[in-house]
Amino acid sequence: MRILIVGAGAIGGYFGGRLLEAARDVTFLVRPGRAQELDRDGLVVRSPLGNIDYPAPPHIASQELNGPYDLILLSCKAYDLDAAMDSFAAAVGPDTAILPLLNGMAHVDRLAARFSKVNVLGGQCLISVDRDASGTIVHLNDTHQLTFGELDGQSTARAQHIASALSGAGFEAKLSLSILQEMWEKWCFIATGAGITGSMRSAIGEVLVAGGECLILKLLEECAQVADRAGYPIRPEVRERFVKMLTLPGSKMTASMLRDVERGAAIEVEHVLGDLVARRDAEALGTADLSVLGFAYTHLKAYEARRLRG
């Protein structure tokens, strides 16, 4: 199976690196600057589950694509989706499967509109990774799960073939028959984590010390209401797990959005929080002036306005 990894950033570089080490047929689609880094330094990952030092990983530029790939793994930021689709369009054929690992849900419809719904899988990953100043990919926890599935929940021959290619590659690969449910649940969780830690500029444990547990739980509930109205209510056992993680005393958990804020980078505020606000308002769920979701969204939008103003 020919696999194209769009980008070699934290997530794409991590899973792509694991696949390369497992001798899968992987090529990274990268910009010139990243290509120079990969040629000079190789692909470097530091992880508690095993480091990767892969010299000169295979990579290609957009203009060099000359035919379809079997699987395209897409892990860009949601605000880069349009540019990413332009970059890999030449690699999409009638039988190509596009596996996005983006936050939120809007990207599924955008990918289907640009290519075909038949091309698009659902997907998500559970991992905390970042890139340090040297370009090294740093794995920040001991979780590295990639879950995917057909949008209609079927166990197709294509899905089984992809599962076979991803399994045994040094990370947990899971074929899900309820991928949209799992994506909605993850969206609610990351929106809660990003909304709280991003707006408070603090880790979960610090917010709890400040008496913010009620805000955390209210934000989770507001997100859950949107998911419920969309037909994907958070399952009780999943909600219980989320509450436990989000109210753990001393937790150092922060969202990647907070790390982006701290480095003055662009953030996915519209895709993680704004889309939930829009769906909530369209359904007239809750009262906007009492909404923790609305406050967190406005707070992080203000950061973006200041960043863009320079």
SS-based class? alpha/beta
**Helix share of residues?**
40-55%
The CATH class of the largest domain is Alpha Beta
Task: Outline the low-pLDDT stretches.
Answer: none
Reading the helices and strands in chain order gives EHEHEEEEHEHEEHEHHHHHHH
* C-alpha end-to-end distance: 45 Å
The count of domains is: 2
Q: Which superfamily, in CATH terms, is the homologous superfamily of the largest domain? A: NAD(P)-binding Rossmann-like Domain
Oligomer: single chain
CATH topology annotation of the largest domain: Rossmann fold
Shape: globular
CATH architecture of the largest domain: 3-Layer(aba) Sandwich
User: Average pLDDT, to the nearest integer?
Assistant: 95
Strand order of the largest sheet: 5-2-1-6-7
Largest sheet: 5 strands, parallel
Percentage of residues in strands: 15-25%
Number of helices: 12
Give the radius of gyration.
19 Å
Total strand count, please?
10
